[in-house]
């Protein structure tokens, strides 16, 4: 059967093909129209691909911000990853950042308990007491209460008397030595020591030796003088000036804590005042622990007999 012939100048088919005359040009126009639609769609996607590819070089290009004006796709990007969803999402995020949006950061971790206990918020201990409340204890209450000293002067070692007391960790030491509130924390720690020194019959005098008027931003230098108070013998004989007493353990704790938290000059002055005023009353064993607390490397606890022991690892090499 011969192939049908078409005349481009006629609007009807050859007589070899059945059908009304209007079928002659309609299929051809339909095919041409369909091809144009596909061509326009392909051009649109190529233009989108070119603009999106250039976003890495110029994320702030003004044409990028007009994408939604010529894009008729309203499908969410996360539901349509095959249609440049992930790229479009990244481009939109970059564009928003270029417009001046402030990125969000995770919140800073809270200060450890000891820093909050000594800080302005005055966190309460397990017994519901704040620092200021403990410092208002009279001498009798300081003597018979055994669960406050671990909060005032924490140590890295757990207390057998109060095992639930907070420990002095690396974050706590960093807060006292390097945080923006370090001067306030150490000033409060010094107030706690003054109260205990008075309890033991001593007076603490400080002389500021720095010439820097903006000392809060730098290291503050003090000369500490710890001397017997007027009621020294009355207080000392009831607390520590004996052969052996539980206050000897407290004194060891105080010296070690002050050194770790940045008040080593106070700790050494306190140790020297104890030695100068103890005579032969205090046992040699207690004096040995005091000396270890004052002079040993910080990573070695006073109760550790092995000088080569690992001790507290995070304090190893710290001075």
Automatic annotation (TrEMBL):
Domain of life: Eukaryota
Region (Disordered), start-end ranges: 1-23
Gene Ontology cellular component list: membrane
Protein name per the record: Opioid growth factor receptor (OGFr) conserved domain-containing protein
Molecular function via GO: opioid growth factor receptor activity
Record domain Opioid growth factor receptor (OGFr) conserved: where: 132-271
Pfam families referenced in this protein's UniProt entry, alphabetically: OGFr_N (PF04664)
Family (UniProt): Belongs to the opioid growth factor receptor family.
Organism in which the protein naturally occurs: Zymoseptoria tritici ST99CH_1A5
Lineage: Eukaryota, Fungi, Dikarya, Ascomycota, Pezizomycotina
């Amino acid at each position: 059967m011969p192939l049908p012939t078409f005349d481009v100048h006629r609007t009807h088919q050859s007589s070899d093909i059945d059908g009304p005359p209007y079928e002659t040009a309609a299929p051809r126009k339909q095919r041409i129209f369909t091809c144009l639609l596909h061509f326009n769609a392909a051009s649109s996607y190529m233009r989108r691909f070119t603009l999106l590819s250039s976003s890495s070089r110029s994320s702030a290009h003004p044409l990028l911000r007009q994408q939604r004006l010529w894009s008729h796709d309203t499908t969410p990007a996360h539901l349509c990853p095959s249609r440049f969803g992930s790229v479009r999402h990244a481009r939109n995020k970059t564009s928003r950042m270029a417009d001046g949006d402030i990125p969000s950061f995770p919140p800073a971790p809270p200060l450890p308990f000891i820093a909050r206990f000594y800080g302005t918020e005055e966190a309460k201990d397990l017994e519901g007491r704040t620092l200021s409340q403990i410092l208002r204890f009279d001498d009798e209450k300081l003597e018979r209460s055994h669960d406050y000293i671990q909060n005032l002067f924490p140590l890295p070692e757990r207390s057998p008397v109060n095992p639930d007391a907070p420990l002095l960790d690396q974050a706590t030491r960093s807060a006292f030595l390097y945080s923006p509130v370090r001067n306030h924390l150490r000033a409060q720690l010094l107030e706690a020591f003054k109260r205990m020194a008075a309890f033991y019959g001593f007076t603490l005098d400080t002389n500021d030796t720095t010439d820097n008027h903006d000392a809060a931003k730098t290291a503050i230098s003090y000369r500490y003088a710890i001397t017997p108070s007027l009621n020294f013998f009355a207080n000392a004989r009831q607390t520590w000036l004996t052969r052996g007493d539980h206050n000897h353990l407290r004194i060891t704790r105080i010296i070690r804590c002050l050194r770790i938290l940045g008040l080593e000059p106070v700790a050494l002055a306190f140790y020297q005042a104890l030695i100068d005023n103890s005579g032969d009353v205090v046992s040699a064993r207690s004096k040995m622990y005091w000396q270890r607390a004052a002079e040993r490397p910080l990573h070695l606890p006073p109760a550790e007999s092995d000088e080569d022991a690992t001790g507290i690892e995070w304090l190893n090499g710290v001075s």
